[in-house]
Design brief:
- It contains nine helices and six strands.
- It is α+β, with helices and mostly antiparallel strands and 266 residues long.
- It has one domain: Beta-lactamase (3-Layer(aba) Sandwich), CATH 3.40.710.10.
- The chain has a six-stranded antiparallel β-sheet, with helices on both faces.
């Protein structure tokens, strides 16, 4: 249990940081959902990293398409002793909506366990999701529950955008019901005149001895304004842990610089 808590703490980056820690923007990529044409591209957008909690977008599509997830409010899964519980909001029953909102790791794991590896792997392949490596943590064969948690599964910002663009354009091999419900639980409301749908993610780079260092953060999704839809991904990396997780900082930085009333898309 202590090891699980320690791992979860690293994954959510809940430790304090040295005052000299810096944040680097690895990539900011915004493309037209209609044409795929880049509207903004900065940095190394082909660098692969663990998707961390942005993989919940894919899990949501799998869950709703397979019937494991029913509606944004069902199923209500109870919290159980032994689940990863690093954040207080994870220590109670969850719905698909609260799972996505609070980024609850154990709900993802329980959904995947119901899917089983055969279906799970088939969806990842059909989605052409990153490197499609579901082996999990080195030597543990735990890909069903850990592949996306700073482990084997890796994806680049460009691949994230390609995946989300397929989602927005209904080009993924899942039902419209799966897409509609995933849209609902990803809805972030209005930001600077844009209707935003997205998911943050945070993790660390795994060292040779299995420790997680050098935190990174994602924000991935799409935004609508009138007839215009754009798809985006931002990936940042910290030199050391900071007081706030990098995922929300990736989100807030993207929103303020790109989708605010004075953003670059205005």
């Amino acid at each position: 249990m202590k090891k699980l808590l320690a791992a979860a703490c690293i994954l959510t980056l809940c430790s304090a940081m040295p005052s000299w820690a810096e944040t680097n923007i690895i990539c900011t990529l915004v493309v037209s959902a209609e044409t795929g044409k880049p509207l903004l591209e900065e940095g190394d957008c082909d660098r692969r990293m663990s998707p961390a909690s942005t993989f919940k977008i894919a899990i949501s599509l799998m869950g709703f398409d397979s019937g494991i997830l029913e509606t944004p409010e069902k199923p209500l899964l109870p919290f159980k002793e032994g689940y990863i519980d690093a954040r207080p909001e994870w220590r109670h029953s969850q719905t698909p909506k609260s799972w996505m909102r609070d980024s609850v790791i154990w709900y993802s794991q329980q959904t995947n366990l119901q899917l089983g590896m055969k279906k799970y792997a088939a969806y990842v392949k059909a989605f052409d999701y990153g490197n499609q490596d579901l082996s999990g943590e080195p030597g543990k064969s735990n890909g069903l529950t850990h592949a996306w948690l700073s482990a084997s599964l890796q994806i680049s910002p460009r691949e994230q955008v390609t995946f989300i663009r397929k989602l927005v354009r209904h080009e993924l091999p899942v039902s419209n019901y799966a897409v509609s419900n995933t849209n609902t639980i990803l809805d972030q409301g209005m930001k600077g005149g844009w209707h935003v749908f997205g998911k943050t993610g945070a993790g660390g780079i795994r060292t040779a001895d299995g420790k997680l260092k050098t935190p990174f953060g994602w924000y991935v999704g799409w935004s609508k304004r009138g007839d215009e839809t754009v798809v985006f991904a931002r990936l940042i990396q910290d030199t050391d842990r900071q007081p706030t997780p990098p995922g929300p900082r990736a989100r807030d930085g993207l929103m303020s610089s790109v989708f605010s009333t004075r953003g670059v898309l205005e």
